[in-house]
Write a structure and sequence with these properties.
The structure holds two protein chains of two kinds. Chain A is α/β, with parallel strands linked by helices. Helices cover 31% and strands 18% of the residues of chain A. Chain A has a domain of 212 residues: 2-enoyl-CoA Hydratase, Chain A, domain 1 (Alpha-Beta Complex), CATH 3.90.226.10. Chain A is built from nine helices and 14 strands. In chain A, the strands form three sheets. In chain A, strands 3-4-5-6-9-10-14 form a seven-stranded mixed beta sheet, sandwiched between helices. The longest helix of chain A has 20 residues. By secondary structure, chain B is mainly beta. Chain B has a single domain, classed as Lipocalin (Beta Barrel). The longest helix of chain B is centred in the first third of the chain and has 22 residues. Chain B starts with a helix and ends with a strand. Classes of the chains: A alpha/beta, B mainly beta.
C-alpha cells in the first residue's frame, strides 16, 4: 500500500510540475484572443505588406473595432475573413468547420477557358488520358496538345515519357495550364526538366525571416535540372489565365527564363508566395504567404500574376473556337515556317 | 570561430559529465593501490541486456504552429545494455516511440473543429552512475552520475498545410541521482484474500527512484518562417538538408525526468521491472518553443549474461 502511495505521489507531483513549468494553456474562444493571435502571426510572417502597400496596423484598428464580447463564432469568422481579404491573396485562408475564407483571385477577371469547347471541337477521337494529362494531336498531327489541370495530380516519369514520345515528330507542343489552381511545387521541375538541356536557374525565392515587414532571407535559386530520359526541344506554348495560380504561376515565372517556351493567354492569377499553416486558440486553422518569388532580374510581379508573352482572349460569343489554342497553334506553325 | 568554441564546450562538458565519475575515483586512492583498485573497478561484475515496452500519455505544444496543447497516447519500445562494475554502472539504450494526439480545442457553439497529430520519436541514451561506499546506507544505496540523451521527434499534422511536417532534435546532458531501496522479501509470506490465500516466496526486490535534470540543453528547431521554399520546390536532393533547411541550433530550455521503478529478480540472473516514467522538456529554440511532457508505464525484462 505504501509503495502504491509513493507511485501516486510521484505521478501527481509530476503532473503538477509540468503545469507549473509550462506556460498557461492558451486555448480560447474569446474573439479578442483569436483576433490578436491571427493579426500578430500575419504581422510577424506575412510576406507582401510592403509590395502591396498594406498598412497592417490600420487594418487592426479598423477590424478590431468590429469585435464585441459574446459575439457569435460566425460573426468572428466574418471579421477575421474581412481582415484577411485586405491582403488580396488566395494563399491566405481561414478554415473553420462551418466556412472557409477564400479570396478567389480568378473571379476578379473574366474566364478564359471553356472545357466543352476543347472537348467537342479540338480533342475528338485521338484523345488519350495518361495519368494526370489529357492529350491529343491538333493541326493535322503537327501540334501536340497536353492539358494539365492541377498540380495536385501526380504522374510518373514513364507516363510523361509516353506522352513526349507520342508527340516527338510534331512541330511544337501546347501545354494548357489554364484554370490550374496549383498544388505541389515538386511537379514544376519534373515537367520543366523535359524542356531544358542544361542546369538552368529560372527564378529566386525569398522568405520572411524577421519582425520587420521587409526582413527576408537571402535569395534561394530555383534550378531546373534536365531529365535523364526523353526531352522535347521544339517550341512549347504554355496556355495561362487568371485561374492559373500558385504552382502554375511559379511554372509560368520559370518559363520566362527558357527561350523555347512561350506563354499565351492572360496574366496568371498570382500566388507567388509559399503559404504556411497554423492554428488559432479556438482551433480554426489559417494560412498565408510567407515568401516571395522573384524573376532572374529580381523583379517581383509573380504575386500579382505572370504576364503572357502573347496576349489572347477567349471569345464567349463563339463557343466552337478556343482563341487561345488557335493563337498558340499559329505561333508554332509560324515559327516552323 | 564561435561554432568551434561551442562544439568544444559541448564535447568537454559531455566528457566531464559522463566520465568524471569513472576517472575521479583513483584520485582518492594512494599511488600504490591505484592500479589494483582501478583494475577491480573496471572488472565487469554483470552485463545485462534489457528490453522494454510501455504505454503512455503525452501532452505537447509547438508554438511555431499552434498555441494549443495536443494530447494523446503513446507506445514506446526500447532495448539496451547495462554494464555493472564495482563502483560504476554504465548503460546505453535505444528507444523508439509512436504516438497520436488530438488538439485540446475549446468547445464551439457551432461545429467543433478537430485536429490531430501523429508522430514518432527516437531516443539514444548513454548514462554513467557512480556508487560511493559513503552513499550506501542500511537498505538504501545512492548513485549519482550523468546521462546524455539525443532525442529526435518527427510529427505530422495534416491540418497545418505546408507546416504539417515537423521535426525536433534535442541533445541533453543531464545530472542523475538514483536512490535504490532494497525491499526484498526475506521470508515466506501469506496474503489472505478471504476467498483464497496467496503464498509468496522470498524474493530479491528493489524500489528505485531516479531523477535526471538537464544541465546542458541543446535543441534544433525550425527557423523564423517554419517552412521554406527550398523545402517544397524539390531542388534540394539531400533529404537531411531538405528537411532541416534553415533549422537553428540553440542552447536553451530545460529537460527533466523521473523514474519510479519496482524491480524483482528471479533466479538465473533474470529480472523484470515495472516503471512509471515522467519526462518533460521545453525546447525554446530561437523563435518559438516546443514543449512536451510524457507519462508512461513501462515493463522491462532483464537478462544477465554472466
Amino acid at each position: 500500500m505504501r509503495k502504491l502511495l509513493i507511485i501516486l505521489i510521484v505521478a501527481i507531483v509530476s503532473q503538477s510540475c509540468e503545469k507549473i513549468l509550462f506556460e498557461p494553456d492558451l486555448a480560447s474562444t474569446n474573439p479578442y484572443d483569436n483576433f490578436d493571435y491571427l493579426w500578430d502571426e500575419a504581422d510577424r510572417k506575412y510576406s507582401y505588406f510592403e509590395l502591396k502597400n498594406i498598412d497592417w496596423n490600420e487594418i487592426k484598428t479598423t477590424y478590431r473595432a468590429k469585435l464585441f464580447p459574446g459575439m457569435s463564432e460566425d460573426s468572428l469568422f466574418n471579421v477575421l475573413k474581412a481582415m484577411l481579404f485586405e491582403l488580396r491573396d488566395d494563399h491566405t485562408n481561414l478554415i473553420s468547420p462551418f466556412n472557409i475564407a477564400i479570396y478567389y483571385v480568378e473571379l476578379q477577371s473574366p474566364p478564359n477557358f471553356f472545357a466543352r469547347t476543347i472537348q467537342d471541337y479540338y480533342l475528338k477521337e485521338n484523345v488519350y488520358y495518361t495519368g494526370a494529362f489529357t492529350h491529343a494531336f491538333l493541326a493535322n498531327n503537327r501540334v501536340g496538345y497536353i492539358r494539365y489541370s492541377s498540380f495536385m495530380d501526380s504522374f510518373s516519369d514513364e507516363q510523361l515519357d509516353f506522352i513526349l514520345n507520342r508527340y516527338k515528330d510534331t512541330d511544337g507542343l501546347i501545354l494548357d495550364m489554364r484554370m490550374n489552381g496549383g498544388g505541389s511545387l515538386f511537379i514544376v521541375p519534373q515537367i520543366l526538366g523535359r524542356f531544358v538541356e542544361t542546369n538552368t536557374t529560372v527564378c529566386y525565392f525569398i522568405t520572411r525571416n524577421g519582425r520587420n515587414h521587409n526582413d527576408f532571407s537571402d535569395r534561394e535559386s530555383f534550378v531546373i535540372t534536365p531529365h535523364d530520359g526523353i526531352r522535347y526541344k521544339k517550341p512549347v506554348m504554355v496556355l495561362i489565365d487568371r485561374g492559373s495560380y500558385s504552382a502554375t504561376t511559379h511554372f509560368a515565372l520559370a518559363t520566362k527564363a527558357l527561350s523555347n517556351i512561350v506563354l499565351v493567354g492572360d496574366t496568371t492569377g498570382g500566388g507567388g508566395g509559399l503559404p504556411n499553416g497554423g492554428q488559432l486558440p479556438n482551433g480554426w486553422t489559417y494560412r498565408f504567404s510567407i515568401g516571395q518569388a522573384l524573376d532572374l532580374e529580381g523583379n517581383n510581379y509573380a504575386e500579382d500574376g505572370v504576364p503572357p508573352d502573347i496576349v489572347a482572349q477567349f471569345d464567349w460569343s463563339d463557343l466552337t473556337k478556343d482563341e487561345i489554342i488557335d493563337r498558340a497553334i499559329d505561333e508554332i506553325l509560324t515559327v516552323k515556317k | 570561430m564561435l561554432k568551434t568554441k561551442f562544439l568544444k564546450l559541448i564535447l568537454i562538458t559531455s566528457f566531464i559529465i559522463t566520465h568524471s565519475t569513472i576517472y575521479s575515483k583513483p584520485m582518492f586512492l594512494s599511488d600504490n593501490v591505484e592500479s589494483d583498485s582501478t583494475v577491480k573497478q573496471f572488472q565487469i561484475l554483470s552485463k545485462t541486456y534489457n528490453s522494454s515496452s510501455g504505454l503512455g500519455y503525452l501532452n505537447f505544444r509547438d508554438f511555431a504552429t499552434s498555441p494549443l496543447f495536443y494530447r494523446g497516447a503513446m507506445f514506446n519500445f526500447s532495448g539496451g545494455q547495462t554494464f555493472v562494475f564495482s563502483k560504476i554502472e554504465l548503460d546505453y539504450k535505444l528507444g523508439f516511440n509512436i504516438y497520436g494526439a488530438d488538439a485540446k480545442i475549446p468547445k464551439s457553439s457551432l461545429i467543433n473543429p478537430n485536429a490531430f497529430s501523429m508522430g514518432m520519436g527516437l531516443d539514444v541514451e548513454f548514462s554513467t552512475l557512480y556508487q560511493h561506499s559513503k552513499l550506501i546506507f542500511n537498505k538504501h544505496r545512492v548513485q549519482i552520475g550523468g546521462v546524455g540523451v539525443f532525442t529526435s521527434n518527427f510529427r505530422y499534422n495534416p491540418f497545418l498545410g505546408n507546416n504539417g511536417l515537423a521535426a525536433d532534435n534535442l541533445i541533453n546532458l543531464m545530472v542523475s541521482g538514483r536512490v535504490v531501496r532494497d525491499i526484498s522479501r526475506t521470508a515466506d509470506k501469506t496474503i489472505n484474500l478471504y476467498l483464497f490465500k496467496i503464498n509468496l516466496k522470498p524474493m530479491k526486490r528493489d524500489l528505485i527512484f531516479q531523477a535526471d535534470v538537464g544541465v546542458l540543453n541543446i535543441n534544433h528547431r525550425p527557423g523564423y518562417a517554419y517552412s521554406y521554399e527550398a523545402e517544397v520546390i524539390g531542388t534540394e536532393t539531400d533529404p537531411v538538408k531538405w528537411f532541416f533547411n534553415d533549422y537553428k541550433w540553440s542552447v536553451n530550455g530545460w529537460r527533466l525526468r523521473t523514474h519510479l521503478i519496482y524491480k524483482t529478480y528471479n533466479k538465473k540472473g533474470r529480472a523484470q521491472s515495472i516503471a512509471y516514467v515522467w519526462e518533460a522538456f521545453n525546447a525554446k529554440g530561437k523563435i518559438e518553443p516546443f514543449q512536451m511532457a510524457t507519462h508512461s508505464i513501462r515493463f522491462t525484462r532483464y537478462l544477465d549474461l554472466n
